[in-house]
Amino acid sequence: MRPSGFIFIFLVALSCLISLAVYDSLPDRIATHWGGSGQPNGYSPKHIALSTMPGAMALYALLFGLIPRFSAKPEYRHLFALYFDRFLITLLLFLLGIHIFIISWAMGYHLDVAVVISVLMAPLYYSVGHLLENLDPAWSQRKKYTWPSFDDKTSKKVQGKIAEGFKLAGIAMLLGAFIPQYTMWVIIIANVLVVVWLLGIIVRELLEARS
User: Fold this and answer.
1) From residue 61, how far is each of 11, 47, 53, 89, 176 by CA, in Å?
2) Distance between CA atoms of 68 and 114, rounded to whole angstroms?
3) Model confidence, pTM
4) Listed residue (42, 16, 7) closest to 96, CA to CA
5) Burial (CB count within 10 angstroms: exposed 0-12, middle 13-18, buried 19+), residue 118
6) 211 residues of the chain, pLDDT tens digit each
7) Which residues, 6+ apart, have CB-to-CB distance to 173 below 8 Å?
Protein backbone atom coordinates (compact mmCIF):
# COMPACT_ATOMS: atom_id res chain seq x y z
CA MET A 1 0.00 0.00 0.00
CA ARG A 2 1.21 3.50 -0.84
CA PRO A 3 1.73 5.80 2.19
CA SER A 4 -1.21 7.91 1.00
CA GLY A 5 -3.41 4.84 1.37
CA PHE A 6 -3.33 5.29 5.14
CA ILE A 7 -4.61 8.85 4.67
CA PHE A 8 -7.47 7.52 2.53
CA ILE A 9 -8.39 5.00 5.24
CA PHE A 10 -8.18 7.65 7.95
CA LEU A 11 -10.51 10.06 6.11
CA VAL A 12 -13.07 7.35 5.37
CA ALA A 13 -12.92 6.10 8.96
CA LEU A 14 -13.27 9.67 10.26
CA SER A 15 -16.45 10.20 8.24
CA CYS A 16 -17.89 6.96 9.64
CA LEU A 17 -16.96 7.88 13.21
CA ILE A 18 -18.58 11.30 12.84
CA SER A 19 -21.81 9.65 11.62
CA LEU A 20 -21.84 7.22 14.53
CA ALA A 21 -21.11 9.97 17.05
CA VAL A 22 -24.06 12.16 16.03
CA TYR A 23 -26.54 9.50 14.92
CA ASP A 24 -28.68 9.43 18.08
CA SER A 25 -28.80 13.23 18.39
CA LEU A 26 -30.23 13.91 14.92
CA PRO A 27 -33.88 13.83 13.78
CA ASP A 28 -35.14 10.89 11.74
CA ARG A 29 -35.12 12.92 8.50
CA ILE A 30 -32.50 15.52 7.67
CA ALA A 31 -31.88 17.93 4.80
CA THR A 32 -29.64 16.59 2.05
CA HIS A 33 -30.38 18.94 -0.86
CA TRP A 34 -30.63 22.71 -1.12
CA GLY A 35 -32.17 24.96 -3.76
CA GLY A 36 -30.85 28.13 -5.30
CA SER A 37 -32.35 30.15 -2.47
CA GLY A 38 -30.11 28.38 0.01
CA GLN A 39 -33.00 26.61 1.68
CA PRO A 40 -33.35 22.80 1.85
CA ASN A 41 -35.75 21.26 -0.66
CA GLY A 42 -34.89 17.61 -0.21
CA TYR A 43 -34.74 15.34 2.82
CA SER A 44 -33.54 11.80 3.50
CA PRO A 45 -33.79 9.32 6.37
CA LYS A 46 -30.81 9.91 8.61
CA HIS A 47 -29.42 6.40 8.18
CA ILE A 48 -29.15 7.08 4.44
CA ALA A 49 -27.93 10.65 4.82
CA LEU A 50 -25.23 9.64 7.30
CA SER A 51 -23.96 6.72 5.23
CA THR A 52 -24.02 8.20 1.70
CA MET A 53 -20.86 10.32 1.92
CA PRO A 54 -18.80 7.76 3.86
CA GLY A 55 -19.86 5.16 1.28
CA ALA A 56 -18.95 7.46 -1.61
CA MET A 57 -15.59 8.25 0.00
CA ALA A 58 -14.81 4.54 0.43
CA LEU A 59 -15.77 3.84 -3.19
CA TYR A 60 -13.65 6.68 -4.58
CA ALA A 61 -10.70 5.73 -2.38
CA LEU A 62 -10.88 2.14 -3.61
CA LEU A 63 -11.46 2.77 -7.32
CA PHE A 64 -9.39 5.93 -7.77
CA GLY A 65 -6.62 4.53 -5.61
CA LEU A 66 -6.06 1.83 -8.24
CA ILE A 67 -5.74 4.23 -11.20
CA PRO A 68 -1.97 4.91 -10.87
CA ARG A 69 -1.35 1.18 -11.30
CA PHE A 70 -2.45 1.48 -14.93
CA SER A 71 -0.12 4.31 -15.97
CA ALA A 72 1.16 3.75 -19.49
CA LYS A 73 4.87 3.93 -18.67
CA PRO A 74 6.23 2.22 -15.53
CA GLU A 75 8.86 4.92 -15.07
CA TYR A 76 6.09 7.50 -14.61
CA ARG A 77 4.02 5.56 -12.09
CA HIS A 78 5.64 6.91 -8.94
CA LEU A 79 5.27 10.56 -9.99
CA PHE A 80 1.79 9.99 -11.36
CA ALA A 81 0.72 8.36 -8.08
CA LEU A 82 2.19 11.29 -6.12
CA TYR A 83 0.15 13.92 -7.96
CA PHE A 84 -2.96 11.77 -8.33
CA ASP A 85 -2.98 10.94 -4.63
CA ARG A 86 -2.92 14.66 -3.82
CA PHE A 87 -6.01 15.08 -5.96
CA LEU A 88 -7.73 12.10 -4.37
CA ILE A 89 -7.04 13.43 -0.86
CA THR A 90 -8.56 16.76 -1.90
CA LEU A 91 -11.60 14.95 -3.31
CA LEU A 92 -12.08 12.99 -0.09
CA LEU A 93 -11.77 16.18 1.96
CA PHE A 94 -14.40 17.78 -0.29
CA LEU A 95 -16.82 14.90 0.37
CA LEU A 96 -16.00 14.98 4.08
CA GLY A 97 -16.74 18.71 4.11
CA ILE A 98 -20.13 18.10 2.49
CA HIS A 99 -20.80 15.39 5.07
CA ILE A 100 -19.98 17.71 7.96
CA PHE A 101 -22.09 20.49 6.43
CA ILE A 102 -25.15 18.20 6.20
CA ILE A 103 -24.70 17.17 9.82
CA SER A 104 -24.14 20.76 10.95
CA TRP A 105 -27.36 21.89 9.26
CA ALA A 106 -29.28 19.04 10.92
CA MET A 107 -27.89 20.19 14.27
CA GLY A 108 -29.15 23.73 13.70
CA TYR A 109 -26.03 25.43 12.37
CA HIS A 110 -27.43 26.94 9.16
CA LEU A 111 -24.39 28.06 7.23
CA ASP A 112 -24.60 29.79 3.86
CA VAL A 113 -24.81 26.93 1.35
CA ALA A 114 -23.20 28.82 -1.54
CA VAL A 115 -20.27 29.97 0.58
CA VAL A 116 -19.66 26.47 1.91
CA ILE A 117 -19.78 24.96 -1.59
CA SER A 118 -17.48 27.68 -2.88
CA VAL A 119 -14.91 27.11 -0.13
CA LEU A 120 -15.00 23.34 -0.64
CA MET A 121 -14.91 23.42 -4.45
CA ALA A 122 -12.05 25.93 -4.71
CA PRO A 123 -9.27 23.57 -3.56
CA LEU A 124 -10.83 20.69 -5.52
CA TYR A 125 -10.70 22.64 -8.79
CA TYR A 126 -7.20 23.88 -8.05
CA SER A 127 -6.14 20.31 -7.32
CA VAL A 128 -7.50 19.17 -10.70
CA GLY A 129 -5.39 21.85 -12.34
CA HIS A 130 -2.33 20.80 -10.33
CA LEU A 131 -2.86 17.18 -11.40
CA LEU A 132 -3.29 18.04 -15.07
CA GLU A 133 -0.19 20.22 -15.31
CA ASN A 134 1.90 17.39 -13.85
CA LEU A 135 0.16 14.55 -15.65
CA ASP A 136 2.32 12.18 -17.64
CA PRO A 137 1.49 12.92 -21.30
CA ALA A 138 1.71 9.21 -22.05
CA TRP A 139 -1.25 8.64 -19.71
CA SER A 140 -3.49 10.76 -21.90
CA GLN A 141 -1.89 9.39 -25.03
CA ARG A 142 -2.79 5.89 -23.91
CA LYS A 143 -6.45 6.91 -23.79
CA LYS A 144 -6.11 7.97 -27.44
CA TYR A 145 -7.56 11.27 -28.46
CA THR A 146 -9.72 10.36 -31.43
CA TRP A 147 -9.43 13.63 -33.36
CA PRO A 148 -6.54 13.68 -33.94
CA SER A 149 -4.21 11.52 -31.85
CA PHE A 150 -2.07 14.26 -30.28
CA ASP A 151 1.62 13.58 -29.78
CA ASP A 152 3.14 13.90 -26.31
CA LYS A 153 4.22 17.51 -26.87
CA THR A 154 0.74 18.63 -27.93
CA SER A 155 -0.85 16.55 -25.17
CA LYS A 156 1.33 18.26 -22.56
CA LYS A 157 0.49 21.67 -24.01
CA VAL A 158 -3.27 20.99 -23.95
CA GLN A 159 -3.10 19.62 -20.40
CA GLY A 160 -1.17 22.67 -19.26
CA LYS A 161 -3.69 25.12 -20.72
CA ILE A 162 -6.66 23.21 -19.31
CA ALA A 163 -4.87 23.09 -15.94
CA GLU A 164 -4.65 26.89 -15.97
CA GLY A 165 -8.41 27.11 -16.44
CA PHE A 166 -9.16 24.84 -13.48
CA LYS A 167 -6.70 26.64 -11.20
CA LEU A 168 -8.11 30.05 -12.11
CA ALA A 169 -11.65 28.76 -11.51
CA GLY A 170 -10.60 27.49 -8.10
CA ILE A 171 -9.11 30.85 -7.16
CA ALA A 172 -12.23 32.66 -8.43
CA MET A 173 -14.54 30.44 -6.35
CA LEU A 174 -12.48 31.01 -3.22
CA LEU A 175 -12.60 34.77 -3.74
CA GLY A 176 -16.35 34.48 -4.39
CA ALA A 177 -16.83 33.18 -0.86
CA PHE A 178 -16.02 36.67 0.43
CA ILE A 179 -19.01 38.19 -1.39
CA PRO A 180 -21.89 35.99 -0.16
CA GLN A 181 -24.54 37.84 -2.17
CA TYR A 182 -22.77 36.88 -5.40
CA THR A 183 -21.14 33.58 -4.43
CA MET A 184 -23.60 31.39 -6.33
CA TRP A 185 -23.12 33.46 -9.48
CA VAL A 186 -19.35 33.17 -9.11
CA ILE A 187 -19.66 29.38 -8.88
CA ILE A 188 -21.90 29.19 -11.95
CA ILE A 189 -19.78 31.54 -14.05
CA ALA A 190 -16.54 29.80 -13.03
CA ASN A 191 -17.93 26.42 -14.09
CA VAL A 192 -19.20 27.76 -17.40
CA LEU A 193 -15.89 29.42 -18.16
CA VAL A 194 -13.98 26.20 -17.40
CA VAL A 195 -16.08 24.35 -19.99
CA VAL A 196 -15.68 27.15 -22.55
CA TRP A 197 -11.94 27.31 -21.85
CA LEU A 198 -11.55 23.54 -22.28
CA LEU A 199 -13.53 23.40 -25.52
CA GLY A 200 -11.73 26.44 -26.89
CA ILE A 201 -8.31 24.88 -26.30
CA ILE A 202 -9.27 21.56 -27.89
CA VAL A 203 -10.89 23.24 -30.92
CA ARG A 204 -7.84 25.45 -31.41
CA GLU A 205 -5.49 22.47 -31.32
CA LEU A 206 -7.70 20.60 -33.77
CA LEU A 207 -7.63 23.51 -36.20
CA GLU A 208 -3.85 23.84 -35.87
CA ALA A 209 -3.40 20.10 -36.40
CA ARG A 210 -5.43 20.21 -39.63
CA SER A 211 -3.67 23.27 -41.02
Assistant:
1) 10, 22, 12, 9, 29
2) 33
3) 0.84
4) 16
5) buried
6) 677 889 999 999 999 999 999 999 999 999 999 987 778 888 999 999 999 999 999 999 988 877 776 665 666 677 777 888 889 999 999 999 999 999 999 998 988 899 999 999 999 999 999 888 877 655 555 554 444 555 666 667 777 888 888 999 999 999 988 998 889 899 999 999 888 888 888 787 777 666 6
7) 118, 121, 122, 125, 186, 187, 190
Which stretches of 23-69 are DSSP H helices? 46-66
Task: Please state the domain extents for the chain.
Answer: 3-210
The phi-psi region of residue 136 (left if phi > 0; otherwise alpha if psi is between -120 and 50; otherwise beta) is beta
SS3 content of the chain, % helix, strand, coil (to 5): 80, 5, 15
